[in-house]
Specification:
Length: about 325
């Protein structure tokens, strides 16, 4: 999507090619290269850099992308090359993974805020009016992303594999989904038996366990090295995975029980009338639309990209974690 607009917000530093003329500074100390290397001095011990700049330059490749596209009196754009291939060494231990998350989350958030705050520089470029309108649409998209990530407890980027886009999941919005699906445990969609009352006890316990795990994660992340909290992180991951299994099972059971109950009435003259009745059923409609819009899009996009193997080798683990 970003490639279509011409501004890719982040290009992997070890797997990108730039025209040398696009990187050249516009004046001494100002321009793409100057901005790219500015972070080197900030990360030296004893340097006097502000909180915003210090975090922003954890993602210097994002800064470079913005500086190239917003370069004055120029009209450089960034494109994705489909034929390119690369392999990378991913974190294979929990402490390494958490350390990477911290660095990338801080850097990407502050770099995104920097790009939004300086978007007016696009008017000093030579991009055409249609390109600038496209950049503005992308600006709004990035702005909403930034707002949602700020108001969520945890924002997690997951590379399904370059160059596919990175689905962003938020622990805050996950909790809301868990809460509303869990409400189905109380009533006719109780898998322990309709109106058995068991769900009324199970759901509050599961909800408090969920909140407890979130609080533990937040506390463990304040001023502690991930290596010192490895067991805590793994335990919380296990809790989240178990709760996710329960949430998916309850969502599936809700769909099944709704369809089964409506079919038992035998009051539909045709498949069309039955389908219309299903879509007017609130819980069924909301859950199906949510599941299809999230998980169905993964399958659709992967098959359209002609690379669906990961949907069968690692998607289940991804769902649970």
């Amino acid at each position: 999507m970003e490639s279509m607009f011409g501004y890719i917000s982040v290009l992997p530093g070890a797997f990108s090619a730039y025209r040398y003329t696009a990187l050249l500074n516009t004046s001494p100390g100002h321009g793409p290269l100057a901005s790219y290397f500015k972070g080197e001095a900030m990360h030296v011990e004893g340097s006097d850099s502000g909180l915003f700049a210090a975090n922003m330059y954890l993602a210097e490749d994002r800064i470079l992308c913005f500086e190239i596209v917003a370069k004055p009196n120029a009209k450089w754009i960034l494109r994705y090359i489909k034929a390119a291939r690369a392999e990378t060494d991913v974190p294979d231990t929990v402490p390494e993974f958490i350390s990477q998350r911290r660095r990338w989350l801080n850097g990407s958030f502050f770099a995104a805020a920097y790009a939004l705050a300086n978007w007016g520089r696009m008017f000093r470029t030579q991009h055409g009016i249609s390109r600038k309108i496209g950049f503005f649409i992308q600006l709004l998209y990035n702005l909403f992303n930034l707002i949602f990530s700020w108001f969520s407890l945890v924002r997690e980027h997951h590379y399904v594999g370059w160059p596919r886009t990175k689905p962003k999941f938020h622990q805050g919005t996950f909790y809301l989904a868990f809460y509303f699906i869990g409400q189905q445990l109380i009533g006719s969609s109780d898998p322990f038996g309709a109106n058995s009352g068991i769900g009324e006890y199970v759901f509050p316990i599961a909800r408090y366990i969920y909140l407890f795990a979130i609080v533990v994660i937040v506390i463990s992340s304040i001023g502690n090295r991930p290596q010192a909290s490895k067991g805590i992180y793994i335990s919380c991951m296990a809790i989240f995975a178990i709760l996710m299994i329960g949430m998916l099972a309850e969502a599936g059971y809700t769909v099944y029980s709704t369809v089964h109950a409506m079919m038992a009435t035998n009051s539909f003259s045709s498949a069309h009338s039955f389908g219309s009745a299903l879509l007017t059923n609130g819980p069924f409609r909301d859950i199906v639309i949510s599941l299809v819009s999230v998980y169905g899009v993964y399958f659709l996009a992967s098959f359209l990209f002609l690379d669906p193997a990961h949907m069968f080798t690692s998607f289940l683990q991804y769902l649970l974690l």
